[in-house]
Amino acid sequence: MWRALAVVLLFAVTACSRELGLHGAEPTPPPSLQPEVVSGQVAPLPPTAPVVDPNAPRLELLITKSMLYAAGLRHGVNPYLVMGLAWHESGWNPGAISSAGAVGIMQVMPATAETSGPALLNRKVNLYDAADNIDMGTAILKNNLVRYNNDLANALVAYYAGGGAVTEWRKLNDDIRRYVWSVYRAAVAFRDGRGPV
Predict the structure, then answer these.
(1) I want to staple 17 with a disulfide (CB 3.0 to 4.6 A). Which of 22, 97, 129, 195 is the partner?
(2) What are the boundaries of each domain within the chain?
(3) Cβ-count burial 146-179 (b if 16+ within 10 Å, e if not)
(4) Catalytic residues
């Protein structure tokens, strides 16, 4: 058995080296890695360690961004609007719980998920699961957009304060108007590549 494994390993190494053009020790390194000679001095080779940008977004945020984008496409909602809404609601924090009891990235109330999950997604949802939370929040936003004939302000008012709060813009209180504008500005920032992530 060991001989068979050794033969297979030898065959694999030989095949790989042939495919990569490796035929033994090369006399010089590839041209792009040769040190540069400037006025008789040899410049040091560039560092080979990976460069870590301390200002780069965390991996979790990039994953959340892609999940929000995908949910927007899946539900037929502008993905940047979904990103902006989620950013305003929780800063994309999956562990966020509001003082009112709203949960997760999209800040969905458990009672809303209990009734709207089966109605909008044809299944129960777990608001503590980021994918379910995003799916539920995006479905609610889509439902609001349909209900209010794609009136963005009314859809966002309903998301924030419930359908009973939807009225003419001039009759909305300042808090609700700020909410709508904040979500809109965040969505535009994501669309224009100026979002926080």
Answers:
(1) 22
(2) 59-191
(3) eebeeebbbbbbbbbeeeeebeeeeebeeebeeb
(4) 89
